[in-house]
Input
Amino acid sequence: MSCNLNSESHRTFDDQTNTCDCDDGYFDDGTSENCIPCHASCLTCTNSAENCTSCSTSAHRVSSGTTCICASGYYNNNGNCDACDITCKTCTGSNSNNCSTCNTNAYRTLVNSNTCACANNYFDDHVHELCQSCHSSCLTCSDENFDSCDSCDSSLNRVLQGYVCKCKDGFFENSQGVCEACSSTC
Output
């Protein structure tokens, strides 16, 4: 058996199976002498350009049935899989910061249906896009200042005074920073 092995055919002779196989990224349509290119998202395909049998991991693609979609953490940007914003775990749509899920290990939570903000007890450092821990007395705190509280956790018997969470009336702060009830003699 012989193959048309010119550069346009995109075929390779397999001497073990005695067949003329299409190179990766091409398929045999059964009628052409030359192999036909697969869709750009496919690493390999069969029977048609859109029938992917494997995907290019270097292009951040994974298989979904017979198509190749962007892997988790990437979104489709005009046919290319681009990385989601660092604040997102997954994203969709036309830009990297249109988050669909957030990285909970990074202390982020989904707000306004597409933004990953820092969770309660954390603030965004706006430098490295990292959520930093607020002071333990704060429920929420201001940007770039861990002990400048915006709100307090009432279950900890604290109230906001200025930007500080103080023990509410009838309580005092012990040496561990916990608000304890005053004795009846106070």
User: Anything to note?
Assistant: The chain has three domains: 1-71, 82-118, 120-186. The first strand starts at residue 11 and ends at 14. The two ends are 102 Å apart (CA to CA).
